[in-house]
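Help! Submission page says 'invalid entity' but I think these are all valid:
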Amino acid sequence: MAAVSVAAPPWAASLRLQLFLGMAFLAFVALVTAAPVLVVIIGAIDGNAWHETFVESSVSRSAIGYSFLLALRAPIAALIGFLIAWLLIRVRLPGGRFIEFAMWVTFFIPLLPVTLSWILLLNPRYGLINNALMTLPFIDSPPFDIYSIGGILWVHIVASSVPVMVVLLGPAIRQLDASFEEVGRVCGSGPFAVFRKITLPILAPAILTGTLAGFIKSLEAFEVEQLLGRPAEIYVYSTRIYDLVSWEPPNFQAAMALSTFVLFILLFIAVVYQRLSRGNDYVTILGRGSSFQQLRFGRVRWLISAALWLVVVVSLLGPLVMLVCGSFMKVFGFFNIPAPYTLDHWYDVLGDTTFSSSLTNSLIMSGGAGLGGVLIYAVTAYLIVRSRLPGRSIVDLLAWLPWSIPGILLGVSVLWLILASPLLSFLYGSLTSLVLIMIIAQMPIGVHMMKTSIGQIAIELEHSSRVCGAGQLRTFFSIVLPLIRPMLVSIFVIVFISALRDISTVIFLASARTQTLSLLMMQFAASSNLEASAVIGVITTAIVIVAALLARRFGLQITVQR
Amino acid sequence: MPELTDRNAIPQPAEPVLRVRALSKTYGTTRVLSDVSFDLIAGEVLTLLGPSGCGKSTTLRLVAGLEQPDAGEVWIRGRLVASGADHRAMVPPEGRKVGLVFQSYAIWPHMTVTQNIAYPLKVRRIDRDTIASKVAEIIRLVKLEGLGDRMPPELSGGQQQRVALARALVYEPDLLLLDEPLSNLDSVLRKEMCAQLKMLQSRLATTVLYVTHDQKEAMSLSNRVVVMNQGRIEQIGSPNAVYEQPSSRFVQDFVGQTIRLRGTVEADEPRLRVRIGDSAIEVGNGERMLRPGAAVEVSMRPEDVVLQTACPPAGNCLAGHIVEVMYYGDHFECAVRIDGPEQQVVVLNAEKRQNAAPGNRIFLGIDQTRVKLWPL
């Protein structure tokens, strides 16, 4: 064979460019996910701050205690949610499909407006339910007080934790091969014995995964605790951080010390969570999309259906009706005054320029985070799943990191980063910083869902394109992205809605100029202008419901499974 | 298509379309390919045949550019496209001008039939009219007329296969790579598509590298067959040579069916005689030096064995008894136990008319020129 002079062929340069771009991109993702955590840990390296936080400040200590007490809702909600999901999927129930749909809508509804509704119902002075019960002869004092640990737990469980579990566990139950249960029936067990001895143990890993996810998420909760806990002097981790940072001058170090403690607990849980969802092999070997016969329960089904309808009324319909009522009331909660209803608050809010600028900001931020997030998650996931770039497995791990950082903490550390580094100062008080932080916050779910989706594309579809003459980039844009289009839409909507309803993550980053709708709603609520807050709550909820319905048409599915 | 400055080209008369030289590939610690070399000349159909895991698909992927070799070279039309020694010579798949049909067809489900087929031309920035006429022509050629606007899920397996074929052929590649393209079709359709493929190939005079584990496909389609085993080439030759003169026991086993019996050499003069159980047969085998007493394996094709109720005088027969008879409609299969202490059992076809029943005494008439001996 003749000697060949191998000069660099034309594609060698483009290969090198691709390699460089890929590495740069991975480095960027690693940086934005790791930096906030590092900031917290470094910021807390100060013995005084630790001493101050955990020895001197009883408020900080009790905040951690309350946080974990309130986190108990995760296992409770997981069990109730699993039972509801199983009933909805496996039992033929009157109105079952609507109940499932209602749970799904509840999943997306922002918490603050719902909290307002429950204040309307359970406030110790004017709460409707309290007043109604006090007309009974043997009750002299208001039986319920929303401003309490019980009140906070109640709002979380009915409005968020249980519906979230129903939605997350639904697909897992649906994918469970019905033949496992059918064999159990044939062997002579009744439906409940089969549920207890077969269904529950097989799905236990999924339930546990859901519980851990719920536990992590519960430490993120901010607005409910802020609104309901503060009057009763109940502080949790997130509201305590809020105070420490919003004091003048802000006590960053105490905030960081408190955060580091929580961070380590969360990191530990996150690692366990990832382990579990990775070793979850026997959930994945279950048959997929198998058809099954729904169980028939005779008369009991009406009873079950009624109970589930009650859940829907308590978690969705009731709060929505109350919210709309509240927005039309002269004085929030006072139904007994003459002519209690008015349109004034709607006129006031809609006529206010702050409202229109907040609405614009919210839509730009949510839309920007949705679009940017979809693109960044898709590229990240693609590089993790398909490339052979060094460091991709590290990025795979790092992408989970924002899971372990509660929103408020993410906000604090990004703020600190922006203040401390001159290179980033241009981001201060800008919408870009809000978009960026929302993209970081949703990184775990976004990258994870994209990875699943891209991993399901047969690699031959991409190889064919390459052999047909298309390069790597062209293949990504004309084969990979179109194939995962439903997933792109789903993730866009998830990020959009999360950004729209977010309060705790953006609260420190938004300036007067970049105030969002949710922050305006929070501000009204905190300054006891509950009527105006309810008006914005109605509007936000309406936008969220429309977006969620659109997503459902594109087959949005959210699950805890891999 | 943008002009690729081809600095690796060396003009040579009668350059093979594909030249594979000493290819090796390792995944982790598993060596999947060692020292594989062959040439493919223009218009030829060469089949890589072997069991799963033998390295045939890896070879194809190395040729397509989907993998990089650890050692060895791949030349396409005189251009070095992959070299284990020098990774700069790695031409990506899109720069190789080959066509590829996967076992799964890999038709993009988000594009219509026409869009799928037009894709390679679009990528090459060919003008719209040319694309339309070329696509129409290839659609006619693979008999997909009227299905251009269908989405892939609406197509049958055979139609999908033809879409994949059309997509691979539409840009007139130098070399067509087919990775088990027929194995997802049912047996009737497979035969039909096999014939169509053969006709299409001779009409277009395409050079084809074909990968399969199905020896019938390999025999009927190819000019030459490369039998592979455990990452190595066992034999290269025409279908006839591979079938009739297998160079190893593996090739004989893998290509076609084989009956094997153990025996001992009884005499080597004047003819080689081998004792199998209670009988002894003559074997027309001169090449191998086998001494009396040597243990050997006697192997033959089932079609070279005749089942008889009696052994003709001076016949070359093994005596046995029928153990079991299996009915297949068009023929029987008999399990026959050879008389003798080892009680070896072989399965043979029997004609429908033959009166075969378990327990019957039977003789295996053996054509001594068609028997192979392998020393044990």
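Support: the input was valid. A stray whitespace character was the problem, and the output above is from the cleaned input. The radius of gyration of chain A is 25 Å.
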